[in-house]
Amino acid sequence: MGDVAMTVPVLKNALVQNPQLRITVVSNAFFAPLFSGLERCHFHPAHLKSAHKGITGIYTLFRELQTNNQFDAVADLHGVLRSSLLRTFFALAGYRTVVIDKGRKEKKELTRKENKICKQLPTSYERYVQVLQKSGINVTLNSADAVYTKQTVPSSILPLFQQNRKVIGVAPFAQHREKMYPLDKMKTVVQQLSVHSNIILLGGGATEVAVLKKWAEELPNTTSAAGNYSLAEELAIISNLDAMISMDSANMHLASLYKIPVISIWGATHPHAGFYGWGQNTNNIVSVNLSCRPCSVFGNKPCWRDDHACMMQIEEKMIIDKTKEL
Predict the structure, then answer these.
(1) 94 burial class (0-12, 13-18, 19+ CB within 10 angstroms)?
(2) Of 68, 101, 134, which marks where a domain is finished?
(3) Based on CB atoms within 10 Å of each CB, which residue in 67, 85, 158, 178 is the most buried?
(4) C-alpha span between 109 and 115 (Å, rounded)
(5) What is the DSSP code (8-state) at residue 298?
(6) How far apart are CA 116 and CA 36, in angstroms?
(7) What is the pLDDT of residue 69?
(8) Positions of the chain with pLDDT under 50
(9) Residues 6+ apart with CB under 8 A from 115
(10) Cα–chain center distance at 212
(11) What is the distance between the alpha carbons of residues 165 and 160, in angstroms, rounded to a whole number?
């Protein structure tokens, strides 16, 4: 979801700067709400577990797109097996196609165990721009304004925003363990912040929902939104937060679309790889400097030290102080 969310500000800039431009976004059907606020942007859902599953399903998706649209170019912003197959069908049909350069070599140099080349790499936003430019669209990145404006929160959670207290979103989970702050330590952070703020817990999936429900029952001024709202409703909730505390994960990027400041916690991964939140202040990063960091681009490799030091050495007070400072 984070990768998909990072396309939104780039497409918004492209559409604003090119009034004649029309874009069709093809992605997992679940992500449709991320693009509903973009003018001249049509979302075509991919049902990857049913109608568009496998090679024949991707061909079906290609035929749907070819039948209903006239494209000047097809831009692959993902560069994975499915998108490459879809792009190939378009290329064989005579369409102009372009694909993202993910910079795999330089990312490998950034994350290797020895002789790291630790420098800021082009961001995903910049890589998306390169794809659009190769397809003939001029785009300049402007992160000064929010991509989307504040939305109306669901009535069931509205009272939390009507009290004279700051409302902080906390998203303690990530797809991979190496990107997660230890849950017992994060629970301490939530407990201390909940004394003076209302906390809304965010997550998804049965395991996360169960953990966050338990936290909400045990901690004061803490509510779990996990499993209770649609993606569109969660986006509305996020758009009204005073701040978000997140890992290097999707919620950092979702909050960034609304210019909500994010205190982001980084372990095995590093902003140098190019996945920092859109328009976020780097002063709000919480991490420790270790020679082994980063050891992974996506956090999907086990800690070779076997002690998860990059997260364990982050004290709860560091996150609490950073949040209070913000």
Answers:
(1) exposed
(2) 134
(3) 178
(4) 8
(5) S
(6) 41
(7) 78
(8) none
(9) none
(10) 20
(11) 8
CA angle 118, 254, 222 (to 5 degrees): 110
pLDDT for 314 equals 98
Residues facing 246 on adjacent strands: 171, 264
Give the span between the Cα atoms of 62 and 260, in whole angstroms.
Answer: 37
CATH number of the CATH domain containing 84: 3.40.50
pLDDT of residue 317: 98
pLDDT score recorded for residue 49:
95
Residue given tokens 């202040």 in the structure block: 281
Measured CA to CA in angstroms, residue 296 lies from 77, 240, 266, 282 at distances of 21, 33, 11, 20
Judge contact between 312 and 325, C-beta under 8 A: no
Q: What is the spatial distance between Cα 194 and Cα 130, in angstroms, rounded to a whole number?
A: 43
**Nearest Cα to 21, choosing from 91, 88, 73, 89?**
73
Q: Among the three residues 99, 134, 169, which one is the final residue of a domain in this structure? A: 134
pTM: 0.95
Biggest CA pair distance of the chain: 62
Residue 68: the pLDDT is 76
The radius of gyration of the chain's CA atoms, rounded to the nearest angstrom, is 20
Structurally, the chain folds into a number of domains equal to 2
